[in-house]
Amino acid sequence: MLRFAVTLFAVITSSTCQKYGCLEGDTHKLKPSPEPNMHECTLYSKSSCCYADFTEQLAHSPVIKVNNSYWNRCGQLSKSCEVFTKKIECFYRCSPHAAHWIHPNYAAGIQSVPLCQSFCDDWYEACKDDSICVHNWLTDWEWDESGENHCKNKCIPYSEMYANGTDMCQTMWGESFKVSESSCLCLQMNMKDMMAIKYLLSESSEESSSISSSEEHACQKRLLKFEKLKEDEGEQTR
């Protein structure tokens, strides 16, 4: 049954890719395709918008920089905070679903990707004691002639820069993400996303900005079934 769930994810991914392709970022492919030798971002290995060699930059801890963007301008990220930062980086660079939320004025950007409240709260909790010097990672850095980022302001704890998980998710990457009103029709950057993505990418969801009760109910039902399958799979491997 778990194998069926993975197959469903691959089918959904394939149909989505044909319609949306990939973002136009500097590390993106034109179209998603399998990348079996991913060093990191393995969630997207069956259909990826990034090449496996890109993920080498994320495969070790601590991550110093990704391309020319340094992650350690206020000291190395804690292990827990780094995990969430990698999830966001992997989604933007590698997810074949990201282009569904392509920014209307910037083909390499995303806008209003729905994140689960629990994901944002956990992300904030993981990073709150780390330090940061920019409120918006996309616009607030000072970039030198070589394209490397530098702080314009002093480093302060995440807990002082952002009020809570919602504030962090909805401002850290500009308009890229929003906190969803739903607890199911949203992304958590893990295998559970395969249950939500079917509804998030449906025609009815595209045509309406609101979440219907029937979609929410169907998603919750599928999510519970998926979690039960995972529990059963875990018991069988013990």
Write up this protein.
It is a single chain. The chain is an alpha+beta fold and 238 residues long. The chain is built from 8 helices and 12 strands. A hairpin with a 2-residue loop joins strand 5 and strand 6 (106-110). Helix 1 packs across helix 6 (193-200), helix 2 packs across helix 3 and helix 3 packs across helix 5. It is globular and about 50 Å long. Mean pLDDT is 84; it is low at 1-18 and 203-209. Residues 1-17 form the signal peptide. Belongs to the folate receptor family.
Please specify the SSE layout and strand pairing.
Elements (H helix, E strand, L loop, with lengths): L1 H19 L7 E6 L14 E3 L14 E2 L2 E2 L8 H16 L7 E2 L2 E5 L2 E3 L1 H11 L3 E2 L9 E2 L5 E2 L5 E2 H4 L3 H7 L5 E3 L13 H8 L2 H5 L5 H24 L2
Helix pairs in contact: 1-6, 2-3, 3-5
Largest sheet: 2 strands, antiparallel
Physical arrangement of strands within the biggest beta sheet? 1-2
Mean pLDDT: 84
Low-confidence stretches: 1-18, 203-209
User: Which descriptor suits the 3D outline?
Assistant: globular
Summary tags:
single chain, two-stranded antiparallel ribbon, 12 strands, disordered N terminus
